[in-house]
Design brief:
The complex is a heterotrimer of chains A (311), B (761) and C (174). Chain A is 32% helix and 23% strand. By secondary structure, chain A is an alpha+beta fold. Chain A folds into three domains: 9-75, Uridine Diphospho-n-acetylenolpyruvylglucosamine Reductase, domain 2, CATH 3.30.43.10; 82-191, Uridine Diphospho-n-acetylenolpyruvylglucosamine Reductase, domain 3 (2-Layer Sandwich), CATH 3.30.465.10; 198-306, Enolase-like, domain 1, CATH 3.30.390. Chain B is an alpha+beta fold and 761 residues long. In chain B, 28% of the residues lie in helices and 25% in strands. Chain B contains 21 helices and 28 strands. The radius of gyration of chain B is 27 Å and the shape is globular. The termini of chain B are far apart. Mean pLDDT of chain B is 96; it is low at 1-8. With 174 residues, chain C is of the alpha+beta class. Chain C has a five-stranded mixed beta sheet with strand order 2-1-5-3-4, with helices on both faces. In chain C, helix 2 (88-95) crosses helix 5. Chain C has two domains: 4-79, Ubiquitin-like (UB roll), CATH 3.10.20.30; 88-173, DNA polymerase, domain 1, CATH 1.10.150. Chain C contains five helices and five strands. The chains are: A alpha+beta (311), B alpha+beta (761), C alpha+beta (174). Chains B and C meet through helix 1 and helix 19 of B and helix 2, helix 3, helix 4 and helix 5 of C.
Chain lengths: 311, 761, 174
């Protein structure tokens, strides 16, 4: 990759759209056809995963990464596709978001998760972007992560030593860093079958109506009993801390209530209190703290509506 | 060269002008065939790249390119000494002046890098990868200097100085010490104190605006080829191939006629492609390598090193009586120029109060250099910044005296005979008509709900004429090749060929427009200042009339009658004398041209004058989310005087496009810098231009108050549409929230903060 | 080997090219296959000027590696018209003056075609959100959105007409 020095001026100002010649470059590309092979390749020094490529290619162009090997996972079995049985849902980690959004039964089961993945970039980006990539890229502002956290999604993590299951909220450890060991990758996501009278929702705030990175994202999943009392709730927040958050106090504010005005107010306060944001080009600390509460409250309202309208 | 065409306002029934035919270049653009700046490939082509400063302000102590030169595949490496150093000399470029001393330093830093992204060296190599590697081998020893990017800080006596020899022009007394203030301008007349003394209400406010980029989707790109004998060809995306030729020849020490410049299709310009960046570098690299060199900017480079327009600090004071008469208007404008002098503060100062008839008015403006990229023209350069502030204050004055803002503007509107704040008396203009159309529009009476607000603002822009050549070549089959020298950005090939067809009286499909290269026509000033349909249109009309003279003469010869007895009607020569009626079509005359006197061509070389200002009034409804500060544009109506809309669809397109650029400027677009003077958002992800889902349909009303100086009454229409939106939206947001907004952009965090602060007090 | 040998299908034609790993599909289309109708406005997926179809899915060619095209089907603006017959979107864009400079036009046409193939009767809002990844700086989007809605209506009309005609023929045949 260029001069192999990501910090140098030349790569900072990487130009584009021109012919690139191979012989000065040493970036290999492999398409493993089994999880074992993929894990083996990813264990190599300088290996980088390619799923949808919507983050990797931007980083390559900007000179932010210089992998020696790009491992394209799309031919690995079970990385693509959506399945459902009595145990719940399984979504292949490299299934393009657009494909997930078109799955009517999944969209009916987890509308909030689908809302979140339909907010990633543009139609074009959604044609390529994947849940696995959105999570493992480890951006604090990834849209699908708070929604998946709220949904209680669990990752199937595969490596040379085999497979393990990890809750989504335990994957991202810091901006750009995840808890996967070398050679490990996410094969799929497992989500429960939502019970009766359950609903989820995801809202994010961006300055435009599309195409921006979340300034704040809030996902809420909840379930009600026959009397309309909240028996289960999970609240996820994005872009308000170094990692996406599972807000336990947010869930506490809802459980045992009828998700009324007082509960929603308490949820907003809990969401705001959980924030540990920064000032940056996308928003201020004060703005993010306030809007996190607003969005958590609004998302809970939508989730509640969905729960009450679902038999 | 004619200085002016005698106005001959057409009163006959128009057959082509005013209709909506398909554009002649449309097929290429919907099939992907059209060739833009980066779409050219030639044999033996090298790829050029630019090394840019990572510092906002640094002295360049040394540049060692020996390792880069030694790299296999590198064919040329240049630094500033490959270009001529030139003395300080101002020449006009559109509505702005340029200085060759500064141009040569802007395209390649000489002693100092003055902004992040400032070019310091360039290479050409056999591939992009080799070129990139070569850049990493160039060693530049910088002495980092303190920088300044804020306009008011740059004006302080102790501010870091960008240029040791900059003494404020226009300051009295003449300054003894250099400063970052390049220029002071002042316009106005009357007695301000007396005017404010008469006022029942005075509103005084400060405003800020941020630099915004033109945001054309096509990055700068060019392909240069210099042969061993110094003959050169250049293909590039530009608003003016003749300006590129002039600038490049000067920077490379060439004769202009040695250099042939062809304008590619241009993927948006908005003023930003009126200057040179890569073109002189590509020529210098090609000259050194004796091979063609292609260069294309990345989006990052476009943001860091081209455009934008000024950010500014503004102060406005307006007084009025209770009956709604403005008694005095005063303004102080401080515009960032970027690293070199030449902000559009002068045109900004001239048009700040131009929509109004005033007795007592003053505008003072300062042009201030800062460590940011040198500003380039952006659609009505300078106007939108000043008029945003003025229109906000006018709205507040109207509110204070309980007067409808449209009525208030009507009461004070500039009209024919009004003395403009910058001096001359205005000719016929259509502001009153746009205001009347606004008041009568259904939009203006539509109900609003909670958290919604309506804003209105007007806007003025001069428009320009300038040097223009055009030729009409009648082929032996009667088809007409129309050659003009002004690149077509938004449909001018359609409007110009329509005027040619109208004059000649032939079907539009027989007129075939071509944008000529610099060897095919005399000098043409660039596509800018909303001048093309006006100036090239004038030249086309003149060339067509020359063709008609020749055709009448040929018919007279064939019929053996005096030419005075031959008239040109509906594409035919007609005998008007006594006797048998005779008629010959253009096609018939063209077929026999070889026998009647040779090829038939019409040429025009004019300096078009008499451009008419275009005025507009915009209405906008917004809804503000009081919990997030998000502003949604609910409804938008743009009303503008076009003089005459030659192709109404493309006039509407200019109005709609300008309005949406203005929406971006008002709500989300801004350059964000870190504390080291580095741009934090050099990409379309965080430099947020409006996307399709951000905006509603933009309704338009075209008003036609003919410009008496143009054969069809044409005014320029391209620039005025970006003048009113910021004022209109700021007024609408203020009405929706009850808080006056004075700082652009009105991004959600700023709006929410203002709402919350207001509720706290 | 320093370059990958890739066999793929572009606009129905089988093509082969060599490319380095980091060359994007857009680089390959423009600089190896000289299909310059797909434009590069940002190379980061933010402008949509390089929109193409990859195995029937709308993507930004700048965010796909050239080597990923192996064995797949790519459709670009150059393949949108058939012979000298424009796609209805292309024709309607001309009629509505839905382009000014034209740099975004190829990407918008490809994206709009993908929309109409999925949704024959989109609302204005659906058109606007579908096209949100295609930046246009000239038009303010108004005439683009109108052109897409009008084309959809035309195509529905044509479909229902031909559907009726087919039905009629069957009836008559019976």
């Amino acid at each position: 990759m260029l001069a192999g020095k990501p910090e140098c001026i030349a790569t900072q100002y990487t130009s584009s759209n021109t012919h690139r010649e191979g012989k000065t470059l040493e970036m290999d590309y492999q398409t493993p056809t089994s999880a074992e092979d993929a894990a083996g390749l990813l264990s190599k020094d300088g290996a980088h995963v390619l799923a949808g490529g919507t983050d990797l290619l931007v980083k390559l162009r900007a000179g932010m990464v210089a992998p020696k090997l790009v491992v394209d996972l799309k031919d690995v079995p079970r990385l693509r596709g959506i399945e459902n049985d009595s145990q719940g849902w399984r979504v292949g980690a490299a299934t393009p978001c657009a494909e997930i959004g078109e799955h009517a039964a999944f969209a009916a089961a987890w509308p909030g998760v689908v809302e979140s993945l339909e907010l990633i970039g543009s139609t074009q980006i959604q044609g390529r972007a994947t849940l696995g990539g959105n999570l493992c890229n480890a951006s604090p502002a990834a849209d699908t992560v708070p929604a998946l956290i709220a949904a209680g999604a669990v990752c199937e993590v595969v490596g040379v030593k085999g497979q393990r299951e990890v809750p989504v909220e335990q994957i991202v450890t810091a901006p750009g860093q995840n808890s996967l060991a070398r050679g490990e990758f996410v094969l799929g996501f497992r989500l429960p079958n939502p019970p009766a009278r359950a609903g989820d929702a995801y809202l994010r705030f961006i300055p435009r109506t599309e195409m921006d990175i979340a300034v704040v994202g809030a996902g809420v999943a909840l379930a009600l009993d026959a009397k309309g009392v909240c028996t289960h709730a999970r609240v996820g927040l994005g872009a308000v801390a170094p990692t996406p958050l599972l807000v336990g106090d947010g869930a506490k504010a809802l459980i045992g209530t009828k998700v009324d005005g007082g509960a929603l107010k308490a949820l907003a306060a809990a969401a705001s209190a959980a924030c540990n944001p920064i000032d940056d080009k996308r928003g201020t600390v004060a703005y993010r703290i306030k809007v996190a509460g607003v969005l958590a409250r609004r998302a809970a309202g939508i989730a509640y509506e969905r729960a009450t309208s679902r038999k | 060269m004619n200085d002016m065409i005698i106005p001959d306002l057409v009163e006959r029934e128009l057959k082509v002008v005013g209709t909506r035919p398909l554009r002649p270049d449309g097929m290429d653009k919907v099939t992907g065939r059209a060739k833009f700046g980066a779409d050219m490939h030639v044999p033996n082509m090298l790829i050029g790249r630019v090394l840019r400063s990572p510092h906002a302000h640094a002295r360049i102590k040394s540049i060692d390119a020996s390792k880069a030169r030694a790299l296999k595949g590198v064919k040329a490496v240049i630094t500033a000494d490959a270009l001529c150093d030139l003395p300080s000399e101002f020449v006009p470029a559109g509505e702005m002046m340029v200085n060759f001393r500064d141009i040569t330093r802007n395209v390649m830093a000489r002693d100092k890098a003055l902004y992040e992204g400032h070019a310091v060296a360039a290479v050409a190599a056999t591939s992009d990868a080799v070129a990139a590697q070569a850049l990493s081998l160039i060693e530049v020893d910088y002495e980092v200097l303190p920088h300044v990017i804020d306009v008011e800080k740059a004006m302080q006596p102790d501010a870091p100085l960008l240029h040791d020899d900059m003494y404020t022009i226009g300051a009295d007394p003449k300054p003894e010490k250099p400063s970052n203030i390049a220029k002071r301008v002042e316009f106005g007349f009357g007695d301000l104190d007396a005017g404010f003394a008469k006022a029942d209400v005075v509103v005084e406010r400060e405003f800020t605006t941020k630099p915004v980029h033109q945001g054309y989707i096509e990055p700068h790109a060019c392909l240069a080829s210099v042969s061993e004998d110094g003959q050169a060809e250049l293909w590039c995306t530009t608003q003016g191939q003749f300006i590129v030729r002039a600038f490049c020849a000067k920077l490379l020490g060439m004769e202009v006629s040695q250099l042939r410049v062809t304008a590619s299709e241009i993927g948006g310009g908005f003023g930003g492609k009126t200057v040179v960046y890569l073109e002189p570098l590509a020529l210098a690299l090609s000259r050194e390598a004796c091979q063609p060199v292609k260069m294309v900017m990345s989006r990052t480079e476009v943001f860091q090193a081209s455009g934008p327009t000024s950010g500014a600090k503004l102060w406005i004071k307006v007084g009025a009586t209770k009956d709604g008469t403005v008694t005095a208007a005063d303004a102080l404008l401080k515009y960032q120029a970027g690293a070199f002098q030449g902000s559009p503060v002068q045109p900004g100062a001239m048009c700040a109060f131009a929509p109004y008839e005033l007795e007592n008015v003053r505008v003072i403006g300062f042009d201030v250099v800062v460590n940011r990229p040198k500003v380039a023209a952006y659609r009505a350069p300078g106007g939108p910044i000043a008029e945003f502030a003025v229109e906000s204050v006018m709205d507040e004055v109207a509110l204070k005296i309980n007067m409808d803002p449209v009525d208030f503007r009507l009461k004070n509107a500039a009209k024919e005979g009004t003395r403009a704040p910058y001096g001359p008396k205005l000719g016929p203009i259509g502001l009153v008509q746009t205001l009347q159309a606004a008041r009568a529009h259904e939009h203006y009476a539509a109900p609003l709900k909670a958290n919604q607000g309506r804003g209105v603002a007007s806007g003025f822009w001069f428009n320009i004429g300038g040097e223009t050549c055009a030729s009409l070549n009648v082929g032996e089959d009667g088809s007409v090749a129309m050659v003009v020298g002004t690149p077509d950005i938004g449909g001018s090939r359609a409007s110009l060929s329509m005027m040619a067809a109208e004059e000649l009286g032939i079907p539009l499909e027989h007129v075939h427009p071509i944008i000529g290269d610099t060897s095919s026509l005399g000098f043409n000033f660039l596509t800018g200042g909303s001048r093309v349909t006006f100036s090239s249109g004038m030249a086309i009309v003149q060339a067509a009339r020359e063709v008609i003279e020749i055709l009448r003469d040929r018919a007279a010869k064939l019929w053996e009658v005096p030419m005075e007895e031959v008239e040109w009607v509906d594409g035919h020569a007609r005998f008007t004398g006594s006797g048998e009626a005779k008629s010959l079509s253009l096609v018939e005359l063209a077929k026999t041209a070889g026998k009647t006197g040779g090829p038939i061509i019409g040429n025009a070389a004019i300096n078009a004058t008499g451009a008419g200002p275009s005025l507009a009034t915009h209405l906008v409804d917004v809804e503000v989310d009081p919990e997030t500060g998000a502003v949604k544009i609910l409804r938008y109506t743009a009303i503008q005087d076009a003089g005459k809309a030659v192709h109404p669809s493309y006039v509407e397109g200019q109005m709609q496009g300008g309005a949406v650029q203005g929406i971006g400027w008002a709500l989300n677009e801004e350059y964000i810098y870190d504390d080291k003077g580095r741009l934090e958002n050099p990409g379309f992800l965080d430099y947020r231009i409006p996307v399709c889902s951000d905006v509603p349909m933009i309704d338009t009303v075209i008003v036609e108050v003919p410009n008496p100086n143009h054969p069809y009454g044409v005014r320029g229409v391209g620039e005025t549409p970006i003048v009113p939106p910021m004022g209109a939206i700021a007024n609408a947001v203020s009405h929706a929230t009850g808080v006056r907004f004075t700082d652009l952009p009105m991004s959600p965090p700023r709006v929410l903060d203002a709402i919350d602060s207001n509720q706290a007090t | 080997m320093t370059k990958h040998h890739v066999e793929t299908t572009v606009n129905g034609n089988e093509v082969e090219f060599l490319c380095a790993t980091e060359q994007t599909l857009l680089d390959v289309l423009r600089d190896e296959l000289y299909l310059t109708g797909s434009k590069e406005g940002c190379s980061s997926g933010d402008c949509g000027a390089c929109s193409v179809m990859l195995d029937g899915r709308l993507v930004c060619a700048c965010l796909v590696l050239g080597v990923e095209a192996q064995g797949r089907k790519v459709e670009t603006i150059e393949g949108m018209a058939s012979g000298d017959t424009l796609h209805p979107l292309q024709q309607t864009f001309l009629e509505h003056a839905a382009l000014q400079c034209g740099i975004c036009t190829p990407g918008i046409l490809v994206a709009a075609k993908a929309l109409l193939e999925r949704n024959a009767d989109p609302s204005e809002t659906e058109v606007r959100f579908w096209l949100a990844g295609n930046l246009c700086r000239c038009t303010g989007y108004d005439k683009i959105v109108r052109a897409v809605l009008d084309t959809a209506a035309q195509m529905r009309g044509a479909t229902s007409k031909s559907g009726k005609a087919a039905k009629k023929a069957v009836t008559e045949g019976a």
